[in-house]
Amino acid sequence: MLAKGGGEIDFVWAAYIEEPGPAEAIRYGELPEPEPGAGEAVVRTEAVAVNWVDTFVRSGKYRTELPRPFVIGRDVVGVVERAAGGLREGERVWASTLGYAGRQGPTAERVAVSADRLHRLPEGVEPVGAVAVLHGATTALIGLERVGLSAGERVFVHGASGAVGSAVVQVAVERGAHVVATARSDEALARLRRWGAAEVVDTREQWSSPVGVDVHWDATGAIPLAEAVTSMASRGRVVVTARREEDPVPAFDLYLRDVSIVGFTLSHASHEEQARAAREVNRLLAEGRLEASVAHVLPMADAARAHRLLESGQARGKVVLVP
């Protein structure tokens, strides 16, 4: 095939959709090689994470501007093939803000990315393990920053075996908090103890939310807001990053208990917040203080299967796609 100027058009293999829809709408095929614009680098993809938000964008549940066709995904680790913005060819980099607001996702052999969205990955950090923590860690860092977590505060994390919940535990422990965390498998409970959670709750047994909590982070969205608020200490903060569509806000209890609810989605974080979080992600990765449980490493050609694994609840850990 010829380009307008008469030259050959190169192609890359990519997982993409033509229109929002179910996982079956994902196609794997050839798309034109990405042409970098001003300030954009070309990155050869090594690993792409599959996040819940990716399924929301793909299905149309999360409404955002999408190019057509739209390459799916958000988080990527790869190697710079064409440099820009002070980056050098051959450097390993990562990004976690692709795939929404008009930007293509990274589930392709190569992707063009604005250099100011790329961060150098610390030496010695392995791509699959790194990409698995990016979304959760960035969410945890910005969310805990927004609620002003202080050392010694009591943090309750429900659903602490998932990508976001596990990152909240690790970041909160690193910040000196007293962390109470829930999980429902022996393996996950052991990880929480190893990460330094002060109290670990097995939700396979009868349990109830702890009381006197300074920060309440339900990564599952299953605990009603009314129940969360009644468990809070005075001036406690409830972080909402996952929630059922209908969950009444207990306004009177907020007033009586001097409690605040902080709604937060990573997609709306400012560039400055993202930059601060990226520096912390790199520090924690370099120190070996961030990790995630990876359940499946699949080829990009299996992107539709990866989305089905997540949506069906069969993935007991992170799903990562590789070329």
From TrEMBL:
InterPro entries, sorted: ADH-like_C, ADH-like_N, ER, GroES-like_sf, NAD(P)-bd_dom_sf, Zinc-ADH_QOR/CCCR
TM segment ranges: none
Ranges of residues in domain Enoyl reductase (ER): 21-321
Keyword NADP in record: yes
Gene Ontology molecular functions: oxidoreductase activity
Pfam family, one: ADH_N
Keywords: NADP
Protein name: NADPH:quinone reductase
